[in-house]
Amino acid sequence: MIIKRIIIQIGEGVELSRRELLGAGGAACVLALTGCQSVSHATKASASAAPLLLNFNENALGVPPSCMRALSQQLPQAFLYPDAPKAEFMAALAQYHGVTAEQLIYGNGSSEVLKMSVDAMVTNAIDNAGAKVTEIQLVMPDPSYGVVADYASARGVKVVAVPLNSELQIDLVAMQAQVDSFNGCSIIYLCNPNNPTSLLMATDPLQAWLAQASVKLQFIVDEAYGEYANPKTFVSAVAAVKAENPYLVVTRTFSKIYGLAGLRVGYGVAHPQMIVAMTRQASIDNANLAGCVAATAALSDNTWLALSLASQARALALVTQTLDALGLKHLDCNANFMFHQVNGDTDLYQQRMKAAGILVGRKFNHTNGWNRLTLGTPEQMEKFCRTLIQFRQQGWV
């Protein structure tokens, strides 16, 4: 029998094959090569060090140097309100997307834009479709990014969470059936690529449904990870906004690939009519000088984007190779995180990783036995892979 040899890079000059990983004597081999006596030994050693953060999907490369330079130059102006830096940033965004300033709105992170979207759409349904709050529903995939459910619930809107299909993909057919069976107005939330699965939605069915938007069928498309998505298969919903769809909001963020999560910069792209409705829901002076200045610099920093994508690709290749060698399934990756099987209870896996000094994603609805893993730097993912191999030798994954 011919066994395909799969090589895992464990450290500099150290390789393991699938046979060595899965064989009965593999544990001793792995632990010796990685310099660990046991998993418990590694756990004790990690207790004194800061944990490896692979749980919140931040850019592990940090803040772009271009942003640091821009911040150092502009911070002396922090005593002024940020009207001018915000205007400069929004003008740069308009040019970047090929839209007008009237089609953009700033948010204190995309989470605020999501709230403004929900509030504006609920108001639209009440004022323009004659709906009562009890006649409005928010339909969303489950699991997905759940903050919109909180915003809708706070407005008294019914939330319908539609489970992913058997392939862990957003089930558009089931979501459409929920809309068709509801005698009222629907707000649809879609995260593309989806969090936590990292999967892209099929373009044609998505675009066809967006084209049906109306005051009774409004859409929010969250593209927080769009910059990481496979450009061959990802089509941004911004194209539908440009096609004059008045009942659609596309949200974006600078918290992910741009490395500015701590500065809270997000934005929405929508028809001017929707932007006006959202602006009525926005808090006054929600922008800050540091965020606007840094985001403007990041937007034109193609070198940083290329570096971040290259780092993600290397990290993904390393983890994918390890998972394949261990026989652990994983989904296609279109973000700076991936979704993979752990062959056991997700909570227990998370606890064991934490004990080993690595924080990984929490358990999500309907997906026990799977884990969301943020892709850090290649060096960080080498540590993760070593730990995962040790877990296999203990029979934990």
- Uncertain segments are 1-47
Look at the helices and sheets and give the structural class: alpha/beta
Overall CATH class of the largest domain: Alpha Beta
Q: State the end-to-end CA separation.
A: 26 Å
Q: Could you name the CATH topology of the largest domain? A: Aspartate Aminotransferase, domain 2
Q: Main β-sheet: number of strands, strand sense, barrel status?
A: 7 strands, mixed
Radius of gyration: 23 Å
The averaged pLDDT comes out at 90
Strand content: 15-25%
Number of strands: 13
- Output the strand order for the largest sheet: 4-10-9-8-7-5-6
Please state the second-level CATH architecture of the largest domain.
3-Layer(aba) Sandwich
Gross geometry:
globular
Query: What is the H-and-E element order?
Result: EEHHHEHHEHEHEHEHEHEEHHHEHEEH
Q: CATH homologous superfamily of the largest domain?
A: Type I PLP-dependent aspartate aminotransferase-like (Major domain)
Q: Tell me the number of helical segments per DSSP (H or I, 4 or more residues long).
A: 15
